[in-house]
Amino acid sequence: MRDALLRFTDGLEAGGHDPRGYVLHHKGRQIASAAWAPYSLSRPHEMYSLSKSFTSMAMGFCVQQGFASLDDKVVEFFPDDLPAVVSPKLAAMRIRDLLSMVTGHAEDTTGHLWASEDGNWPKAFLSLPVVHEPGTFFLYNTGATYMVSAIVQRVSGMRVTQLLAPRLFEPLDIRYVWSTRDPKGVDFGGSGMRIAVNDIAKVGEVVRTNDGSRLPADYMTMATSFQVPNGGAGSWASDGVNDWNQGYGFQFWQCQHGAFRGDGAFGQFMLVLPEQEASLALFSSSENLQGILDLVYEHLMPALASGAESVGAHFARQVREDLAPVTRDWAGAYTFESNEVGLEALTIRDTGDCLEYAVQWSGQAGTLTAGKERWVEQVSPVFQWQPEAVCAKVGELDGRLALRLRFPEMTQSQTLLVAVVDGAAEVEFRCKNRFGRTEYPKVLSR
Length: 446
Description:
Layout (H helix, E strand, L loop, with lengths): L1 H13 L4 E8 L2 E9 L6 E3 L4 H14 L23 H5 L2 H5 L10 H6 L5 H6 L15 H15 L3 H10 L8 E2 L13 E4 H13 L7 H7 L29 E2 L5 E5 L3 E6 L4 E7 L4 H17 L7 E6 L13 E4 L7 E8 L3 E8 L2 E8 L4 E5 L7 E10 L2 E7 L6 E9 L2 E9 L10 E2 L2
Helix pairs in contact: 1-11, 2-7, 2-8
């Protein structure tokens, strides 16, 4: 088993998946884990759409307690937010249609919710045309999951994370769960949650065993089973045999080889392998999610099926960086004309084992310290839309000074490249694996 784990772990690195960590359980025991510094198994990390599976669990409790039924019509919960004319297709949309992504919309509704001027997301959702008969057309639709979250809050009086806290999180000693909310205070539901890999592993085992002690068993059986096909019209990944056209449950994907999963963008997984009595929690920053699952099928699944165990195996590694050591003096001070990036001024100081970057960026000012041979963790609003923990390391890349920033609770990483020619600085900013812009034009100092 250890050889298989090693091949899997090496494969995550070699495949460019930029792993953060994983925890593997087999027959109720944790048999392996891995963590790539500066990330941690115990630190919360954004999950993107893996959040959807938790919103589904919250709805499961609402159904179990009689707050709602899967066949309740969506319009019944939002009488004050309905359009002047409710189409027959909108009127027919049920909670189960939201959960299984067959609302009848022709496009993902999420952008319309974020763009709503009055901050009333249910009203924005309900105003959109329902093109297909609900229940007949699969379309991955994060706005539908938001509506599940909104219904949970309406019928229970609690946000998704509040409802799950005493029923799921606290009994499992999951102490930190954070969630993005809409302007009215409703958990976004379809994305935006942060939970640690260790804690996802705990939930994965609860989902796998499904004995009713932590989650409503009947509902979870439905949620993790095939409910609708997703490999035909309306599927965004329907070519060939892959893990995005095996069917969809209630915010859980069906997989090849009898498995199922919750997953999020850039490779955040809660994967359950029922036939092998195993579950895997894994966070990464990958652009090839199928490649990660293929590694599981190639290396872990056969070893688990053989019954071989390696209890307690742990791989402690460093993230792979393409940086060479700092070999020259990069100290200098530079100012910049108004530019698209927002960089206004940059001063670099050498303190021996670190470089300090004093930055003015889009009206913000701050200092980042980057280790030459180690990650330096700090909190800075610079380079980020809100204060975040950030780990900084510096090196050289293709003749330029490269400041590499990794956010230990986020998938993305950022790089600030500086070239100095005749006393002038040319700066390039890059961002890896986040939604939105990732590359920007180079900025020249005055």
